[in-house]
Design a protein that fits this description.
By secondary structure, the chain is of the alpha+beta class. Helices cover 24% and strands 22% of the residues.
Length: 590
Amino acid sequence: MSHVFPTLCKSLPALLIAMLALDASAADPIRIQQLQRCGDLLETKKQTFCLRVKGLQPGARQVRLNGVALADKQLSGEGEDLRLQLETDGKKSGPLVLEQQGRQSNPVWLSLASSHVVAATADEVAKNMDGLTSYVDLISLVIEEDYDGAKQAQRLAEKYGAKVVGMIPPLNTYQLRLKAKNLDERDATVLRLGGEVSVDAVVIEESGAEKSIETDADKAPAKDNQEWASNRFLDAVNFYQRRLQRETGGLKTHPVRIGVIERDVDFDSPDFSDYIGDNCRSDSKRLCLYARDADKPSGHGTTVSGILAAAWDKGGNSGFLRGLDDVGPGFDVIVARDSDAGITANIAASVNLVEDGVRVLNWSWGIHRVGAIDVNGDPIDSLVRSGIAMSGYEELLEEFFLWLREEHPDVVVVNSAGNGSSFSGRDEYRLPSSFVTDQLFVVGGHQRSNKDVPVKDPAYATKRKASNIDMRVDITAAACVHASTAKADEEGDVHCGTSYATPLVAGLLAAMLSINPELEPDQLRMLLRRSAMTIGEEYDFEPTEGDDLTAPILPSERANELNNPDVGHSARLDMYKALDLTVQSLDRVR
């Protein structure tokens, strides 16, 4: 017995370590569900971030930004709600991860850029005359470019008894909290502010009255229907892997950063579980995904992001860029929206992402003006906004695209055409798809037809009934996709909408830029349209019976062949041919 006690003592440390490891493995996973600026949003040197974290246990925890551990005192709070203090000198935007007892959280992109706006609480909104939920005391001012925006916003705030609470400095836009107690008081102040010489526009936020995602209510195709075949998805992945194989002297690829304006992604889904932690970039060739965590895999953000980044052969989604891992340059997919302050928050997040190096922005969102009608002449009742709100959004979007053209002319924005069975390009009806700029690509949706014809035949695919149409749509892509699942090897539900066609184009553009980063937006559009297959009937440039799904293919997009059979048809995405033409573009004399 005398030898038992010393032996037991020697075994205790190992037992304790094993027990701690067992406790850690049994504990809930750490998931960052929210990360956004809080406190004084006008402060840029010392920034405060509020986090909502699930799965943390009492005790020590560590936070890392860009792989570097931050001081313990910078993170405060207990339970789910934490606050992070950061002095920005010497730091740059990047992935933030929490760690405790060997468990790591999902990586979330923390932007140190300065554009942030405040969302209204439930007590700070009211129904307007159109029955839409509208912010009562929060508005944004777009200041004329000849004025110092910060000074003018502060002057106007003092004049009207308001307070500056948010800003988008690159767009000379500042958010004010008014003293208004109801919509009548707000509208009276807005009218006076709109008359100020230094004010270009007043942005009124309307959100919360309906779901934030425009739904496609049309019947989904069968689960075994290979929708992506209509865009030669697998052919494109195979071409990229084979043509760019480094071991065989393939082409050099270049890293590309993609921004996705969505709320969150479910990291507990098998499609995304291997993105946990902060060591993703240790493999320079793999895709990295940064996002807040969602509670379930069926959400809009999870599905949209999955089309770019989901793991393959897990039973759910399959990410196009993830399929390029072995030979790719190491794509970064950043899913971010910051606050839930509607369209203004979408623009603020987009500005931050561009300043953080994003080259391709995915906008799977859009809004219609109250009174917009569909192709049958019936009113649209999904994602509508009042005329006064649309006017403000239009001015804000105009400032965004002007800034993009002047400061970041190589960035492209890919926007969904919408699911209102309406017209995507009418200025008074649809935003942002009605803007005409080389840097905005508008994507419509199609689905597989029931005809047994070759993939290049125009009848291989047919317009998705709910998809918006017209000349402003650049190209159509498959609108239906399998959603991610909670368990491996399950078959996900089919989700449909132009929201899911959009990331197919965004991912393809990112892949094209990874091959030839010198391509400019107009050249990217030319390659997309030159490579496109066709859909629908030829209509000789005159729309007939709703067949004008996209801008018609022109002779100039078919080597100036007037009699080319594609001329006059709408354009359907060909991912394989677009990559092939991109490789060929490397040999062209500039």
